[in-house]
């Protein structure tokens, strides 16, 4: 989904961009944050952003995918520790709360 470093690992700059975007998107909303702010707060150059992501849209997609994976893992962990049926529903509700 995003451009890698060529050797399959995630670069420090890419991780910083994604962590910064995640923090700001969550706090202020996706539409209110521009790439200039993400670049400034992640302390990278514009070229670095575009080396790892084709643009803000792709950065948003990676952010949303990461959030989705985290929520799904949290729900699965809650379900795994509970008995079938109503206990699983209560465990998932506790995990979400």
Short summary:
With 97 residues, this protein is mainly α. The chain contains five helices and no strands. The longest helix is centred in the C-terminal third of the chain and has 25 residues.
Please give a structural write-up.
The chain has 97 residues and is an all-alpha fold. It has one domain (12-96): Tetracycline Repressor, domain 2 (Orthogonal Bundle), CATH 1.10.357.10. Helices cover 70% and strands 0% of the residues. The chain has 5 helices and no strands. The chain has helices at 12-28, 35-42, 46-52, 56-80, 86-96. The longest helix has 25 residues, at 56-80. It is elongated, with a radius of gyration of 17 Å. The two termini are 30 Å apart. The relative contact order is 0.13. The mean pLDDT is 89.
Q: Which descriptors apply to this entry?
A:
97 residues; mainly alpha; Tetracycline Repressor, domain 2; 5 helices; 0% strand
Q: What does the secondary structure layout of this molecule look like, with pairings?
A:
Elements: H1 12-28, H2 35-42, H3 46-52, H4 56-80, H5 86-96
Overall geometry comes to: elongated
**What is the CATH superfamily classification?**
Tetracycline Repressor, domain 2
CATH topology grouping: Tetracycline Repressor, domain 2
The chain-level mean pLDDT equals 89
Parts with pLDDT < 50 across at least 5 consecutive residues: none
In terms of structural class, how would the helical and strand content be classed?
mainly alpha
Portion in helices: over 70%
Secondary-structure element string: HHHHH
Q: How many domains would you count in the coordinates? A: 1
CATH architecture: Orthogonal Bundle
Q: Number of DSSP helices?
A: 5
Strand content: under 5%
CATH class: Mainly Alpha
């Amino acid at each position: 989904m995003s451009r890698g470093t060529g050797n399959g690992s995630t670069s420090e700059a890419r991780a910083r961009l994604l962590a910064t975007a995640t923090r700001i998107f969550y706090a202020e909303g996706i539409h209110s944050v521009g790439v200039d702010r993400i670049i400034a707060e992640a302390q990278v150059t514009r070229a670095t952003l575009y080396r790892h992501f084709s643009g803000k849209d792709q950065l948003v997609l990676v952010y949303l995918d990461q959030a989705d994976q985290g929520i799904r893992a949290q729900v699965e962990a809650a379900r795994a520790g509970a008995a079938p049926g109503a206990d699983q529903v209560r465990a998932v509700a506790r995990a979400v709360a």
